[in-house]
Amino acid sequence: MSPGAFPKLSDFVELAAAEYYLESGRVELDARWIAAYFQDSGVMDAYPRQDPVAFGELVQKALDTHAERAGKQMRLHLARIARVKGRLRRR
Questions:
Q1: Where are the domains of the chain?
Q2: Per-residue model confidence as pLDDT tens digits over 15-61
Q3: Secondary structure in 3-state letters for 39-79
């Protein structure tokens, strides 16, 4: 990245979602947290026309997407465990 170049908005969104989840462990975004992040992380400087509410909605969507993927992976993993357990019982 060249000096003065800013990350893409999608990068800011993914970083915000990851940071929020790591800090809080929750999937429901806190309005105060995202407002502070929007101001302190440089989103406001990089994208002065970006609406903070719209940015929060993008971050919430990213959190929801990650939660859905994690849930799906968990269900697949549990199904594998159940299959292995069933095979072991038949022996």
A1: 9-90
A2: 999 999 999 999 999 999 999 999 999 999 999 999 999 999 999 99
A3: HHCCHHHHCCCCCHHHHHHHHHHHHHHHHHHHHHHHHHHHH
